Amino acid sequence: MTVVDERPAAEVGAPRKRKEDARLITGRTMWTDNLTLPGMLHLAILRSPMAHARITRIDTAPALAAPGVVAAFSGRDVAETQGSLPCAWVVTDDMVHPDHPPLAVDEVRHVGEPVAVVVARDAASAVDALGAIDVEYEPLPVVLEMDEALGEGAALVHSDKGTNKSYTWIYDSAEAGHGQAYDAATAEAEVVLRKRYVQQRLIPAFMEPRSVVVDPTADQVTIWSSTQIPHVLRVLIALVTGLPEHKIRVIAPDVGGGFGGKLQMTAEELITMMAARRVGKPAKYTETRSESLLAAHHGRDMYQDVELAARRDGTLLGLRVRLTANMGAYLALLTPSVPLLGRYMYNGIYKLPAYRFECTGVFTNTTPTDAYRGAGRPEATYAIERAMDDLAAELGMDPIELRRRNWIGHGEFPFHTVAGLTYDSGDYEAATDKAMSLFGYDELRREQAARRESRDPVQLGIGVSTYTEMCGLAPSRWLGSLGYAAGGWESASVRMLPTGKVEVLTGTSPHGQGHETAWSQIAADQLGVAFEDVEVLHGDTRTAHKGLDTYGSRSLAVGGFALVNACQKVVDKAKPIAAHLLECDVADVEFSAGRFRVRGAPADAEGKTMADCALAVFAAHDMPGGAEPTLDAEAVYDPTDFSFPHGTHLCATEVDTETGRVTVRSYVAVDDVGKVVNPLIVEGQVHGGVAQGIAQALFEEAVYDADGNLLTGTFVDYTPPSSADLPDIVSDRTETPAPDHPLGIKGVGEAGTIASTPAVVNAIVDALRPYGVDDIRMPCTPERVWRAVQGGDRS
Amino acid sequence: MIPAAFDYAKPSTVDEAVRALAEGGEDAKVLAGGQSLIPVLRLRLAAPTVLVDVGGVGELRGVRDDGDALVIGATTRHADLLRDPLVARHAPLLAQAAAQVGDRQVRHLGTLGGSLSHADPAGDLPGAAVALDASFEIAGPGGRRTVSAADFFVDFLTTALAPDEILVSVRVPKRPGWTTHYEKFNRVAQAWAIVGVAAAVRRENGSIAEARVALTNMGSTPLRAGAVEQSLAGSAATVDAVASAAGHAAEGADPPSDAFASADYRRHLATVLTRRAVLAAGGIA
Ligand SMILES: Cc1cc2nc3c(=O)[nH]c(=O)nc-3n(C[C@H](O)[C@H](O)[C@H](O)COP(=O)(O)OP(=O)(O)OC[C@H]3O[C@@H](n4cnc5c(N)ncnc54)[C@H](O)[C@@H]3O)c2cc1C
């Protein structure tokens, strides 16, 4: 009998449309706020209108009298029991780490800090009753600006700590044995660029506001939360509340975006837990957009004092970075570590003899900062890529030429960097050559010269960004050595169902990335089953019981590795079963293209499929000697190192010198993310990332007034761009497989954001260099650009 | 983002609407497209006790040819203005301004009358109405009255409408021989104007016979740029002449300083945008 080769087309690499999109896009799914439980109550949270004040009086009793209200309480009522929101990363032994009560007790330290809560039968009644709560505040001095906060006699955010400094952290390549000492290496420098770049404060602005539902009525307390980290959250809840871990179930149902903004244990989660447990009923809290912009953690907000020393021929001699990082009023989950992740990346893709990095974390009366897409790496890349363009201008050299003279050549990998990492692979030449030709670099330079010559009111600028990043967070040993409380492994399980269908459990927690599709593609290839026959389960600590969730471009790089290993174990378990069915020796069975065949059998021999084995195991009537009747397998993978995607982004901006308006005319992104599981998903990640990076360059900033009120508390004021404000993005790839990954993949979640911001600002500055402009503070609003052109105030 | 509780009335005639408003007293509010009012309610910046939804009043919607003018009902949506043939023919400036309002969703719900009654100085339609010298038909308990554009816009978010009155329609004179342009400058595509300029120009034998120019967001109400208009009247239809006239755009204006732009920058923008608007309106290159 001849059989048609039923080998499915290779799924990995295919541009599959995302299987989860129909339900996500239509909203016909389980967003946390869609959940309704019998008897469920609703919360509203009263937030501080003051940036710094003592709470001299607070009375929630009047709210109890309002219609529909079931309970109301303030921080004072729970002061002894509420615990403190955790910071999981202690970066220095002497880090100043103040208490962070979910509900403020005696003092509020930023506008938007929760002070009291109302629990009512419906959400409207809860909101209505907030007005009845009686609070008196005694204003305390407010400090918002970092240099001021570090100055002599500054007002203190935490008066009992005696300082606004949380920590100072230093890395020195000579001390660490990864390079020379900065001063010695740069003694003969012919040019030293000194710049302060400012990373403005951003708001992650995920699409789905945070929402949490707590059901305390069953044996296990169940928490549904719009979070990126259900597994980490479960552990944290156990540690903070004392509730035994096995009595806690956390579910991240479908989650509408996070960008690091939901990599957090939030005050709102703990407050909802307290409320539900106090009244003994399920309770829900969903924030408004305004609350989200005000109180969910912010990102970036750093001063970057950079010194880059070189010879006139462009050879880099050393880099010194002094970073001042705004913590906000408290340390949230990863607050102090975010700027420090940048320390590995300020050297970028360059060969630098010496590097010194100092970072000081500062408290101010603002919303705490924490991870935001890229977390430390976009900031670092911004500084080094801006500095490279500035240095090129200073040397009168083409910015790409300057980079070529200093980057790590493709023959030099693996390369041990001055920051202490080993870059495994890369081909910066190939990515740059491809980007330049897609972009039409030389033609655009000619057009730029012509516009300069004719004094065109619309000037053209070209911005370059050649970046790398570290993905696949993270080797557990590395995390431990840096003071992080948890590890960086990831898990995957495969369940073979009797009819040959497959359930894949992943410990990663997608919130828009398309894991269900990518994981299905990998499992389909590994197990020889159809894409449609794989169901990917995630986000529920009861089903996908083990994991460390999704952030830091880790899901595929680490979780994908675990999945391949789990699939491999399934195949290994199935082999003896198949041998038994084929009546041959295990050693003679081969698995390929979804079929087990006897070695040497014709390629069209029918053999046995995974489904045949699954059914045989389910029946278990005739197991080969002592075999356990299951094919299911679990694998946990702890990465041995990071992966290092890289790329070259080129941006052309038109700058209207009359109005200051910047228009991105063309944008080319050539990224090397290793092997690609699904090119559509990769392209989507790049486009979204580039959009977010352009948003930092041109549009977004969280602005406080002098009293610490957030002026950009709505989308009208925060001005996130829409598609109408963004260019067509030309994205392409080079492919240097990650040598240590079974699929050769590197990670792509943050690449676009990391690369694009400096490309855009470099292009604006490049357009305006003839006007004497060498920097513009982000976001480069029309007024700022116009003022720079006028030669006036450039701040 | 939950508004305080309110009562809701949905009249089907202008008289019923006026009566419902009167019954509601001081705290009654007209609801049209809700694109300005609902956000205000959700942020609890206002808490009217009665909303009178005029969306069901047939008389208020649509565009009618009335000889030397168009009469446009107050609840005519921005999106209606964009595709109405009478507007395209006789008052294209309204469509040019409406096209710049917010985004598609906002344009399909927001109304001309709502925009004018709300009188946000950053709104796009008020400037266009002023440039076109529109007049406003208002109904109240005492009957109907007509107010000129110059008198309708009184102050920041304040019009000649009394709390118990309803804007019924806007009368826009036809202007044969005039050409128009609306130039808007904003931060992101769906945002309000930092500055906007509505320009209408009548050309005659290579010169500009007459021009009307109104500025958006250069004061607490839309402003006519009188000095620009005077300087343009009878001037040559050249780039230089227009640029020189546009230099007067900010004269007499008192623009705000806010998170989006300083007053100085707005003054500067007004001159650049006025030049561009007049050049585009007059087809002058
Ligand atoms: C996201 C967003 C972006 C926007 N961007 C812009 C923009 O770029 N440019 C711009 O110009 N506008 C913009 N708007 C506002 C939009 O133009 C609104 O449509 C307009 O301001 C109000 O019209 P409305 O029909 O929605 O009025 P409503 O919101 O229903 O009412 C507004 C006010 O007018 C009163 N009112 C309404 N109709 C009458 C009437 N017939 N008689 C008496 N009083 C009445 C109401 O009582 C209320 O006080 C935007 C709105 C949104 C939500």
From TrEMBL, chain A:
It comes from the Bacteria. SMART domains: Ald_Xan_dh_C. Residues 26-141 form the Aldehyde oxidase/xanthine dehydrogenase a/b hammerhead domain. It holds the Pfam family MoCoBD_1. It comes from Phytohabitans maris. This is Xanthine dehydrogenase family protein molybdopterin-binding subunit. Keywords: Molybdenum, Oxidoreductase.
Automatic annotation (TrEMBL), chain B:
Residues 1-177 form the FAD-binding PCMH-type domain. Keywords: FAD, Flavoprotein, Oxidoreductase. The keyword Flavoprotein applies. The keyword Methyltransferase does not apply. PANTHER family: XANTHINE DEHYDROGENASE SUBUNIT C-RELATED (PTHR42659). This is Xanthine dehydrogenase family protein subunit M. The lineage of its organism: Bacteria, Bacillati, Actinomycetota, Actinomycetes, Micromonosporales.
